[in-house]
Amino acid sequence: MRNTLISDGMRSRFASPFTTAARPCGILVAAICMLAITVQGDEPKAANQQPRLKERLLALHTADAAEYAIYRDSARTEKLELQRKPVYNWTNVIRSGGQSGAVFVWTYRGCPEVVGSIFSSPDGENSGQRRVLHEMHTLSTAVLVPVRDALNRWQPKASLPRSPIPDAPAPAETPRQRLVQMRELAREFSAQSVDYEEKSWQFRLLTQPLYRYESTEPSVIDGALFAFVTSAGTDPEVIIVIEARQTDAGLQWQYAVCRFSDHNLYVKLKGTEVWTSIRGGDNVWEHNPNHTYRLFTDRRIPELSEDEG
Questions:
Q1: pLDDT tens across 226-250, in order?
Q2: pTM attached to this predicted model
Q3: Where are the domains of the chain?
Q4: Residues sharing a CB contact under 8 Å with residue 221, sequence separation 6 or more, in sequence order
Q5: Contacts of 31 (CB under 8 A, 6+ apart)
Q6: Rounded distance, CA 131 to CA 121, Å?
């Protein structure tokens, strides 16, 4: 198996060039390779000037991600694997005094089954404290069983269904050609949010997928996760799953949409609205009705600084 990674770093508020580097993953399975693409770019200047703080934040967020043991079955025999290297690092200088976070994926047989953003920010209500938050979304076609020894829990009540992409071409024969197709299909989507002040934010699609994979699961031939962000920060607000899946009619491009915002969200495909997430009823800021999405403040810790240690 082989991973293809894009160089480490945090994206700035605006699009920046990408570089790639290859890294061996380990085991070759029946001539099927798993490609994992990590989207990174230039860091904001302030982060570059605080390398030790950046390291401490990454260690904090990675340790929190590692606390989760997630299974595909109630018998807990099919455990997901955390990819400890974040697929994306982000900042949002506008919200909560400046947020910093990392996006992780948990995989099974090469497929991402969970995408989670672990992030933190200064606590505006308690000087000298830092809030640590977890934002999780299932990608699985099974109802997952997350296990974590903490008061805050995430218990999905459903799987994440896929839908065919209308008028999509047949998946191409080679991974390179399929990546071109997935990028073209991703550009057919558009997304926006409406915040608590009724201000509309038009999202932009990141040019590189967050994560690219070819699975050892027979039903999934190829796939990628694409993210939409705003000009206010580089944190994902909507994630689109695009996969080439085996169906009774043959290979087919399918998609799913994942909420990663507490604002109202609207997603269109070729100009037609195909998905919304509107606050109200059981769809509240901390979870959606079936808890496939979960956001919570996990705890408060003493603020970190560049000068510690």
A1: 999 988 779 999 999 999 999 999 9
A2: 0.84
A3: 2-302
A4: 171, 178, 214, 215, 243, 244, 245, 246, 251
A5: none
A6: 5
